[in-house]
Amino acid sequence: MRIVAVLAALSGAVAVAAGAFGAHGASGEAAEWLKTGGHYQLIHAVAALVAVRMGGRISPWLFVGGGAVFAGTLYLMALGGPRWLGAVTPLGGAALIAGWLCLAAGAWKRPA
């Protein structure tokens, strides 16, 4: 799970950079997309690290992958990418929700 932890840490760094660019270097809709993507990506980078620590096997990947798809599509649109990427963004969101459900299931199965 070392690779997931490394990817989660890198995801956190990208999230901070995107959020900062959204706050200070972009304007309008692009700024909102960067801030939203950064917010969700950062939360789920931390969630992936926690899930790794809890012994999760699927949820860390869902958090990292879902965060990359969700935030990545927003980042690309903010940087001039095609608007149809907005139709892909919810797939990342669905992966993030699935990650939380997997984490809950794993926590339920763990001994008290």
Protein architecture, described:
This protein is 80% helix and 0% strand. It has four helices and no strands. The longest helix is centred in the middle third of the chain and has 26 residues, at 28-53.
Structure summarized in a few sentences:
The protein is mainly alpha-helical.
How would the blueprint of this fold be written?
Elements: H1 2-24, H2 28-53, H3 59-78, H4 89-109
Stretches with pLDDT under 50, minimum 5 residues: none
**What pattern of helices and strands is seen along the backbone?**
HHHH
Mean pLDDT: 96
C-alpha geometry = elongated
Query: What is the count of helical runs?
Result: 4
The count of DSSP E runs of length 2 or more, i.e. the number of strands, is: 0
Based on CA atoms alone, the radius of gyration comes out at: 14 Å
The biggest beta sheet, please? none
* Classification by helices and strands: mainly alpha
Q: What is the share of helical residues?
A: over 70%
Strand content: under 5%
Note the gap between the termini: 23 Å
What key phrases describe this protein's structure?
112 residues, 4 helices, mainly alpha, single chain, elongated
